[in-house]
Amino acid sequence: MSAPAAGPLVLLECLVAGTTHREGLRAFEPQLQPNQPLALQREPDSSYDDWAVRVYTTGPDAFWLGYLPEGHNETVARMLDAGFPITARLTHKAWEEEWLHLEIEVLLAR
């Protein structure tokens, strides 16, 4: 039996929801690069989704990109609430008319 693979465990592959509502994203988009690390933050007081999880860039000038999609976010939200070290990374980006299509992987550190 082989040893488990090193690196983080991919928990979820998904699109970032709500990018059309993020002011300034069109101007910020050139700074986004594949494999870029991203941060996740719970929004427990959201009036729209009990399991809301925001997706941000990392660093001192973190930019709010959008949300994990509703219906795919409960497990990640529960794990964040429990203190698990969960992050994300950008895997693909593309404009589709006025919508910035951001694909990410949600990661659990091993």
From TrEMBL:
Gene3D superfamilies: 3.30.70.2330. Keywords: Hydrolase, Metal-binding. InterPro entries: HIRAN. One of its GO terms (molecular function) is hydrolase activity, acting on acid anhydrides, in phosphorus-containing anhydrides. Residues 9-110 form the HIRAN domain. This is HIRAN domain-containing protein. It comes from Hymenobacter rigui.
